[in-house]
Amino acid sequence: MDDSTAETTTRLRIALVITELDVGGAERCLTELALFLSKQGHHVRVLALGEPPAPLVDGLWRQLQQAQIDVRFIHGKGLRHAVRSIGRLRRELAEFEPHVVQAMLWHANVATAVALRGHSCVFVGGMRVSEPRWWRWPIERWAARRMASLVCVSDDVRRHAERAERIEAAKLCVIPNGISGPPLPAEYDQSDRPSSQTGPGVWSPLGFEPREHQMLYVGRLEPQKGVLELAEHLPQLLAPLADWSCIVMGRGSLREAMERAVKQRGCGQQVHFTAWQPEAARWMPAADVILLPANYEGMPNVLLEAMHAGKPFVAFAVDGISQLLSGDYPAELREVQLIPPQDWPKFVKAVHTLANNPQLRQRCGQANQRHVLAHFRLEDQLARYEALYCRLVATTANQPILK
């Protein structure tokens, strides 16, 4: 069966294992996959190694509950309780008797590899980033030996898995993230948008009113995302742009450090920090440029959402991000939005170039929207997971199929 299609007449029991079920890129992918597979008639169970998510960040859990998908929490509490957590996971899997187990993220890959020892079901791993911590590589390589396949979120991540972590190339496949829903209009500039999307009160629910134009960062406030460096460069970004604000939307360990950096550099009047929002994509139509200065990524959903909304962005071209604007994407627009990693002078220059050229922002936004709709449709990517599972089950001996 071709991985690009998912037409099946069989029903499978599929367990999806994730480290946590808070709102995040991997967690969203797993939730969308669970919903898709359930609609296709498969019996799906979600197993999260950690505790249930807290209120306000439990949206994915609620989606699964509303779809009547069985969700179990292992209640793992770190390395001290690893043996007990893996024992619980093993019992859950033994009771469910899945045909396929899909794990996502490093901890879930490793825990599942241990828990499945002695089981004959198809084990598929998931690699979401090019892991920078080298000490994790041999552990994941050990786990990969027990996998039938390892799904990488981008070509860059696949190359990292093969070359750095030395995982067998034949086991690696690439299924990118995807985006769904009707496209938002990308044919007009800020002044032509409906007031309900961009008028004076659009940001009022968040407790502030920014200036006429906005650059927006959405994501975790953690070292991986390069946000402290962003805060340190905000004076250079904003000084020549008197009618622009920068909105930082997210939560994380660097929030206070970022606020101090902004205050010390005297640009606080143009910078607004807001708490994490459960539906951050709803604010993108009101922004002019999306920023993502991440140090490493897999394939960030925030940029897929920005492209879907017809927004230009400025991001470092680290693993996974470059693939978003590859293939037939116009080279001159790619160069404006993708910056060599850690080249902050070029990052600042690119933001200024877009800020001072509304026509260029419009061209980038339109090209982004066309490209994401042509190459990153969520339904296509989810169907590739299903096709992979069915192919692996069909080619694995002694795998019963539900009729």
Structure, explained:
With 403 residues, the protein is α/β, with parallel strands linked by helices. It has two domains: 13-178 and 378-394, 3-Layer(aba) Sandwich (Rossmann fold), CATH 3.40.50; 190-375, Rossmann fold (3-Layer(aba) Sandwich), CATH 3.40.50. It is built from 14 helices and 13 strands. It has a seven-stranded parallel β-sheet with strand order 3-2-1-4-5-6-7, sandwiched between helices. Helix 1 packs parallel to helix 2, helix 3 (82-96) crosses helix 4 (106-115) and helix 10 crosses helix 13. Residues 1-8, 186-196 and 399-403 have low confidence and may be disordered.
Feature tags:
about 400 residues; alpha/beta; Rossmann fold; six-stranded parallel β-sheet; 14 helices; 13 strands; disordered N terminus
Query: How many structurally independent domains?
Result: 2
Q: In what order do the strands lie side by side in the largest sheet?
A: 3-2-1-4-5-6-7
CATH architecture of the largest domain: 3-Layer(aba) Sandwich
- State the name of the first-level CATH class of the largest domain: Alpha Beta
Label the overall shape.
globular
SSE class:
alpha/beta
The span between the termini is 19 Å
Tally the helices. 14
Strand content: 5-15%
Biggest pleated-sheet summary: 7 strands, parallel
Radius of gyration: 22 Å
Q: What oligomeric state do these chains adopt?
A: single chain
Mean pLDDT: 90
> How many strands?
13
Spans of at least 5 consecutive residues with low confidence: 1-8, 186-196, 399-403
Helix and strand sequence: EHEHEHEHEHEHEHEHEHEEHEHEHHH
Provide the CATH superfamily of the largest domain: Glycogen Phosphorylase B
Instruction: Determine the fraction of residues in helical runs and give it as a percent range.
Output: 25-40%
